[in-house]
Design a protein that fits this description.
The complex is a heterodimer of chains A (694) and B (225). Chain A is 58% helix and 11% strand. Chain A has 28 helices and twelve strands. Chain A has a six-stranded mixed barrel with strand order 2-3-8-5-7-6, surrounded by four helices. Chain A has a two-stranded antiparallel sheet with strand order 11-12. In chain A, strand 6 and strand 7 (388-401) form a beta hairpin. Chain B contains seven helices and ten strands. Chain B is globular, with a radius of gyration of 17 Å. The chains are: A alpha+beta (694), B alpha/beta (225). Chain A binds chain B through residues 1-3, 6, 9-10, 13-14, 584-585, 588-596, 598, 685-687, 689-690, 692, 694, and chain B through 48, 51-52, 55, 57-58, 77-78, 81-82, 84-86, 89-90, 92-94, 96, 98-101, 105, 108-110, 112-115, 119, 158-159, 162, 170.
């Protein structure tokens, strides 16, 4: 037996003698260890999945942006149109050259993250637009088909207005609407369409079928070639890839599913996820109940896409399916409306069948997505100087990220070509310069420099001459109305995306572990090149979302700190109390020659051992829990967790460093925490051995 | 004979609320090596205080205690502890064994704290003392399995294991029946005779005093004789 084993033996005896205390301290420490291990492990999982979904979608490892930025770069932060002002890189190729000089920089990809509005007409607007197109083509069959669709829609509007009449106070308004509907349905109106009648449909009738809120589309613009080379997770899911050198838009899968999908289909999807996949009950689950109630109200999201033959067919199919709707002598619209409404009344039992039935029978008849590959869409955006710029672009395809199917961040963005972005941003591109030149030709505007502006306005020469010039201008205007038809070419030179404006740039590193050093070195390099730039890591670049993990970690550490504070008080208190019971024993040890340090060591070993046992148990429990979670996954109970987990379930990894270091560190902290109590015990006088009190 | 302990004008005053209790009043005495001395007197006469001062567990209010001619008032806690470990042995009224340890381990304890003996040396010393105090059969038992007399024999062995020059015993027989008490005193006497160890013990039992080679009588803090 050595002195150390003696210490251990005495300490262990005391631990078993004061079992309650040992259990309490051990339990507390164990709980702390459990919290630390589980928390740290999950945080690391979340951080990893977040990092992958941020860095491998658009952010890269580092982001470079202008030093003149008023706000900090927040790739996934920002609100709607009020995006952060992060300045701009007037010509990114200069920055690129400097950055690529750094040995650890593998690639430099220019980016422009912005928002654009997609204005949306309602279905009636779309129909009139396609009617105009068919009129222009002169295809009589097509014209007849469009006219039938329009008539059917107007009949639906008439029904709606009649129902509205029974409930609204402003009868005059409804009467006026009905009168206009009646006019459009009057015999011959649709047969002999002229411009005036078409405009009547557009201005008076179409607005009756409701306005749709514009969609705000968050997008990133980039050099397609460079982007594809460096972000291998990018994957085309539908349609085709945006070809380099072409104007065009690719929709993010998540954007399309969540913002551009038919409302009925979307509600069915959500219910499918929660009720069929997630096992929730409509009656008990708030979200599922809300969705199911909303579903019934969205019947017109089916109705307004149907023409008469489709409506007849659907009514038949629904009757065969077992939904005959209201009985009685009803016209098609009334009958189908009641059928659709009762079809949309879903319960836990009928949902699986109706979900299937909707996708196989109704979905093919309606427009499932507002935008699909092949469509052209007008993007509108406020330029830097404040006016609205509208540019039509073709939708090439839908994309996603391999393995990041559920990552909310990356999936929320669409992709635009760099040149169109620059125009929306308000920058002159080669194409827009051409366009401007063409417009100037038309309206005969002279290029006037600032120094000559005064002369030009008030006339430097004789007033007669000016009047004459005015006359020339006014002569041309009425005859030839200003037509700012876009001269924008669909493609642009590949040179244009190799330099010029970008808002920020993604840097891919060769060695990710040197992230911070590389960032610092790049800053220095830029400074030497006299470039005023900021370099931030992916986490900072992601904005509040990227900082989230740090915030959660802070909260977790604080919670652990509090637990240890409580543990510290309890440990000290219980050791002091138990020391009172052992005054004579400790006094005896001191009397027969044990130094204070011996007593100190004895108490520290006691708390150290109980701490270590508790922490090991906590560690063991954590390990078992992690193993179980690895097998079954942790379900994300709500959207926030789904976002954090980057998916519906999190399958945590087991980090041995955390599992092993945490209990040792915690046991050590417990030991150090009992220093006060140990000093108290060490100060027991040897004379206490002589006291006769039992 | 050498001087083992010398007290020079030692006084000990304990504060008690507003007043003071004088436990020892200017006690001067010398105990030589190899003496088998008992300190006798009624309860509260200062016996324990005297032993505590000699045992370096307490400091006098005035005067000086010399252990082998060395004054102890100049020593720090560490040095006093070292002195107790190396030169002194203690036997307590209520035995004060360490409950978790066996007979052997209790006896070995001071050697382990000294930390300079080999395992073999420790075992040899412990075995010899176990035989001497006649506890071979009980050597692996814990203290709560032993009788009072057996416990006190363990305590004696523990006090002697470091071969101290001076053994202090505070009422070693108080918690024992008289027959056992007598046997304990005889054992101590034997050791005193064979090893030359100086013993100072306090008692108020007359039959114990018979064995003493010298009796110091205390009364109200004075040495009476």
């Amino acid at each position: 037996m050595t002195i150390f084993s003696l210490l251990i033996k005495v300490s262990l005896r005391n631990l078993s003698l004061y079992r309650l205390r040992t259990g309490m301290i051990g339990g507390l420490i164990g709980f702390g260890a459990w919290l630390a291990i589980i928390g740290m492990s999950l945080l690391r999982d979340i951080e990893t999945s977040m990092r992958t979904s941020i860095t491998e979608s658009i952010a890269g490892d580092l982001q470079v942006y202008s030093g003149k930025a008023k706000d900090e770069l927040a790739l996934f932060g920002g609100g709607f149109m009020g995006r952060a002002d992060i300045g701009a890189l007037d010509d990114f190729s200069v920055v690129q050259k400097v950055a690529l000089n750094h040995p650890n920089v593998a690639a430099f990809i220019p980016l422009g993250l912005e928002m654009a509005m997609i204005g949306r007409g309602n279905e009636m607007d779309d129909l009139v637009t396609s009617l105009r197109a068919s009129l222009a083509s002169g295809d009589q069959g097509l014209i007849a088909e469009r006219l039938e669709q329009i008539r059917f829609q107007i009949e639906q509007l008439k029904n709606e207005q009649n129902i509205k009449k029974q409930v609204v106070v402003d009868q005059a308004e409804v009467d006026k609407n009905l009168e206009e509907i009646q006019k459009s349905l009057s015999p011959g109106f649709l047969q002999h369409l002229d411009e005036e009648r078409l405009q009547f449909l557009e201005i008076k009738i179409a607005p009756l079928s409701g306005e749709k809120a514009p969609i705000y589309l968050a997008y990133f613009a980039t050099d397609m070639e460079l982007y594809k080379q460096n972000f291998s997770k990018f994957k085309v899911l539908e349609g085709e890839e945006l070809p380099p050198g072409q104007r065009g838009l690719m929709l993010g899968r998540k954007v399309r599913e969540e913002q551009l999908k038919n409302k009925v289909a979307r509600l069915f999807d959500q219910l499918h996820k929660r009720v069929i996949m997630g096992g929730a009950k409509i009656a008990k689950d708030d979200e599922a109940r809300r969705d199911s109630q909303d579903l019934v109200r969205q019947f017109d999201q089916i109705m307004s896409y149907l023409d008469r033959p489709e409506a007849e067919a659907l009514s038949q199919q629904l009757a065969t399916f077992g939904i005959s709707g209201q009985t009685g002598d009803l016209d098609l619209i009334h009958k189908l409306t009641s059928q659709v409404k009762s079809f949309l009344e879903v319960t836990d039992e009928n949902l699986p069948v109706r979900y299937q039935w909707f996708y196989s029978n109704i979905a093919p008849k309606i427009k499932l997505y507002e935008l699909s590959p092949g469509d052209t869409v007008v993007l509108r955006s406020y330029t830097k100087s404040g006016y609205i710029k509208s540019i039509p672009v073709k939708v090439y395809g839908v994309f996603g990220f391999d393995g990041l199917e559920n990552a909310a961040l990356a999936g929320g963005l669409s992709l635009l070509d760099l040149v169109t972005f620059r125009e929306l941003y308000g920058q002159m591109t080669d194409a827009s310069r051409e366009e401007l030149k063409a417009m100037r030709e038309k309206v005969k505007v002279r290029e006037i420099s600032r120094s000559q502006a005064e002369d030009a306005l008030f006339g430097g020469s004789s007033p007669v001459e000016t009047a004459k010039q005015d006359a020339v201008n006014s002569e041309t205007s009425p005859e030839e109305p200003l037509r700012a038809a876009p001269v924008l070419a669909a493609s642009f030179g590949s040179e244009e995306v190799k330099k010029g404006l970008a808002l920020s740039s993604a840097l891919i590193l060769k060695d990710f572990s040197k992230l911070q050093e590389t960032a610092a070195e790049l800053k220095e390099q830029f400074k030497q090149a006299q470039l005023d730039l900021r370099v931030v890591d992916w986490q900072k670049a992601a904005g509040t979302v990227g900082q989230f993990v740090n915030i959660v970690r802070g909260v977790l550490l604080f919670a652990i700190f509090i637990i240890f504070l409580v543990a510290l008080v309890i440990i000290n208190n219980s050791i002091v109390v138990s020391t009172f019971h052992r005054i004579k024993e400790i006094g005896t040890m001191r009397a027969i020659g044990a130094q204070r340090s011996f007593v100190l060591g004895m108490i520290l070993i006691e708390s150290g051992v109980s701490g270590l046992i508790g922490a090991s148990l906590g560690s063991l429990v954590s390990w078992l829990m992690l193993v179980a979670c690895q097998r079954w996954g942790i379900a994300a109970g709500n959207d926030f967790l789904t976002f954090l987990f980057s998916g519906p379930r999190l399958y945590p990894k087991i980090y041995w460093d955390i599992l092993l270091v945490a209990p040792v560190a915690i046991g050590l902290i417990a030991t150090i925490a009992s220093l006060y109590a140990a000093r108290f015990a060490a100060n027991i006088a040897p004379i206490e051995a002589m006291q006769e009190r039992e | 004979m050498d001087e083992a302990v010398r007290l020079d004008q030692v006084a000990k005053i304990y504060p008690l609320g507003q007043t003071e209790v004088v436990a020892l009043r200017n006690v001067s005495l010398t105990i030589r090596s190899g003496e088998f001395t008992t300190i006798a007197g009624p309860s509260g006469c200062g016996k324990s205080t005297l032993l505590n001062l000699i045992g370096c567990m307490d400091q006098p209010t005035s005067g000086e205690v010399y252990i082998e001619t060395k004054p102890i008032s100049t020593l720090k806690d560490r040095e006093l502890t070292r002195l107790r470990l190396e030169k002194l042995g203690f036997i307590f009224q209520s035995f004060n064994l360490i409950p978790v340890l066996s007979v052997e381990q209790n006896i070995e304890f001071p050697l382990l704290i000294q930390g300079r003996h080999s395992a073999q040396e420790r075992k040899k010393r412990v075995q010899k003392l176990i035989e001497e105090v006649d506890l071979v059969a009980q050597s692996h038992q814990r203290s709560h399995e032993l009788s009072g007399g057996q416990r006190q024999r363990v305590a004696i062995a523990r006090a002697l294991v470091t071969s101290p020059r001076l053994v202090l015993a505070d009422e070693p027989t108080a918690n024992l029946d008289s027959a056992t008490g007598t046997r304990i005193i005889s054992l101590m006497k034997d050791i005193n005779k064979h090893h030359g160890t100086t013993f100072i013990f306090s008692t108020h039992g007359p039959q114990v005093m018979e064995h003493a080679s010298r009796i110091i009588r205390l009364k109200d803090g004075y040495v009476v004789s």
